[in-house]
């Protein structure tokens, strides 16, 4: 069921969005060569506890997961595209790292992700990151009243395909509110002018992700991490966005984005 949020409910979602952004800011300040993925997860857990928030991941157990996720953060490294399960892995120079985080604050959920490269920068990886960020910006720009859901999807896919990347449609954006995943599904490619009409009060997570050489995935033995079938690297970004009378409002802007 698709729910439209009242102004008071959007205020609650804004609080959740700011908390999620603050956690990602802290993670971005910490992630580096020599840092263990479990240390990143512990940082997220500590901030959740200090805020009195709730993790959306620890008990999360959808049909495609082998068991409850059990961690507070998705950390997807190099050929891992999505749902990276934190484990005892020390980041190396040049690693490409996605950090995806969702939490509930006073019953309202926000969800966001960012991809960075640690240490030595590789041109092909920086191009990949820049492309998914442009995909995200294009999708957000279409999240305005009167547009259709297909306009959001088509904008994302157009940027990705224009840059030479294939688009996987198995996983994409989703509604956000009282739970982490709800309706509507927001594919990362589509046809403009199709789908539901966007109305003020709709809140969705828009999350483009791309792999450098393929659009096909396989599931790691950990039962969660999704990797590219050809070993090519991946990038994933995401924001929680509210459709308002004034246009799209990004609820999970990080500090640098708010100051820009």
TrEMBL record:
Protein name, entry field: Methionine aminopeptidase
Pfam families, per database record: Peptidase_M24
Keywords, in A-Z order: Aminopeptidase, Hydrolase, Metal-binding, Protease
Domain Peptidase M24: residue ranges: 12-245
Organism: Curtobacterium salicis
Cofactor: Co(2+); Zn(2+); Mn(2+); Fe(2+)
Presence of the UniProt keyword Coiled coil in the record: no
Enzyme Commission no: 3.4.11.18
Annotated residues for binding of substrate: 83, 181
Subunit structure: Monomer.
Binding site for a divalent metal cation 1: 100, 111, 238
Entry's family note: Belongs to the peptidase M24A family. Methionine aminopeptidase type 1 subfamily.
Sections of the chain in a coiled coil: none
InterPro entries with a match to the protein in the record: Creatinase/aminopeptidase-like, Pept_M24, Pept_M24_MAP, Pept_M24A_MAP1
Enzyme class: hydrolase
Described function: Removes the N-terminal methionine from nascent proteins. The N-terminal methionine is often cleaved when the second residue in the primary sequence is small and uncharged (Met-Ala-, Cys, Gly, Pro, Ser, Thr, or Val). Requires deformylation of the N(alpha)-formylated initiator methionine before it can be hydrolyzed.
